[in-house]
Amino acid sequence: MFSPTNMPRSVSTLVSACTTFAGSIMLIRSMEKELIPDELRSYLSAAIPYLFTPLSPNITLVIDEHFGVSRNQVYDAAEIYLNTKISPSTERLKIGKTPKQNTISFAIENDEVVTDVYENIKLTWVYVCTKPENSDYEETRRFELSFNKKYKEKVMDRYLPHVLKRSEEIKDKEKVVKLYNREWGSINLEHPSTFDTLALDPELKKMIVDDLKRFLGRKEFYKKVGKAWKRGYLLYGPPGTGKSSLIAAMANYIKFDIYDLELSSLSSNSDLRRVLLSTTSRSILVIEDIDCSAQTRDRQQGGDDNDGSNSKLTLSGLLNFIDGLWSSCGDERIIVFTTNHKDRLDPALLRPGRMDVHINMPYCTPQAFSILASNYLDIRDKNHYLYDEIEGLIQRTNVTPAEVAEELLASENADVALQGLVNFLKRKHSEANEV
Fold first, then answer.
1. Domain boundaries, position 426
2. What is the pTM of this model?
3. Among the four residues 65, 219, 220, 272, which has the most C-beta atoms within 10 Å?
4. 279 inside domain
5. CA–CA dist 81, 94 (Å, integer)
6. What span, in angstroms and rounded, lies between the C-alpha atoms of 338 and 360?
7. Max Cα separation, the chain?
8. Do 222 and 345 meet the contact criterion of CB atoms below 8 Å apart?
9. d(CA 288, CA 244)
10. Within this chain, do residues 330 and 296 fall inside the same structural domain, yes or no?
11. How far apart are CA 154 and CA 160, in angstroms?
12. What is residue 396's predicted lDDT score, i.e. its pLDDT?
């Protein structure tokens, strides 16, 4: 029979040590209850296990759609860049195609993972879109970028600048001009208007193009003189003279997105500032029919309380939006105002710095008719037997380019279309004389 008396010496020593250790544990436990408060014992019990848990080698960067009150340029760049990194193994994709695109576009869906490798660093991107339940708050969007934390400096100093640069290259190559509206978001601008097809006098078109080129190339000049890098245009003239077509031609020429700003949809100066901050650089802000807004009437007529209140939209708030401190929130911006009645605008709106360039959109001229005849009927010279008669009638009649274009659309046969235009111009001229 095995008993402590016939144990080997080493085993006996081990049993003795265990007995002593067990006794020590019992002693410590009895002292613990007397010396350590219950709250501290609970905290130590919860914290000690984590001391032995290995730390994750990864770090995650959260890139929200907005940074403060402005859009996050890193988010926008990542959205463009990651579309080129989608792998065949991706399970969910958003797809779409516009009439101007030759191929289908892809974008990652919520919680989808995209991997990238940069200088032997493995990086993982996740797109996350959330909307609080039972809340009126809009959904929030973000990208989460994870990688080994030992590469943090290289990712911050080299990889993220690479993403920004690559996205700019992709945008320049595949730029599709967007049209934004506060109510329904954005769509691709499909308006085909260009300066080649625009029914304006060639000299006026050249002036506008030259002014746009000069503005785009003067970043350092604006910085040197201490001015916000923006330009204001006022397009005025009768309805149908091509104001909207000119805006589309400007956007297509310089590849700027358009933000359609309807003052009637804004209830306060605060609303106006929020809209301004939601726009991006390299954009055209359009305020159409500004004379129809009660908030922009002449202050001498009592149309503006001029108290700077944020509780309603005022002329003072609009002026600060155009030319005050808030106008500097973003670079390379163009603000375009349109009106059918320039004389109804408050003089404070018209001065340089707010509306820098005033462009009179006139009734149709012989030069504009030549462009329309080329666009609609492929007539590229003045040899048609009705040409001289039409030019004479246009010079004596107030007719808009839109009215002339409508007559030219009546038939693809040049003789029929031009004869219809002659009849229309004679009738319009006769009616004007009677009035």
1. 366-434
2. 0.63
3. 272
4. yes
5. 15
6. 10
7. 138
8. no
9. 9
10. yes
11. 9
12. 93
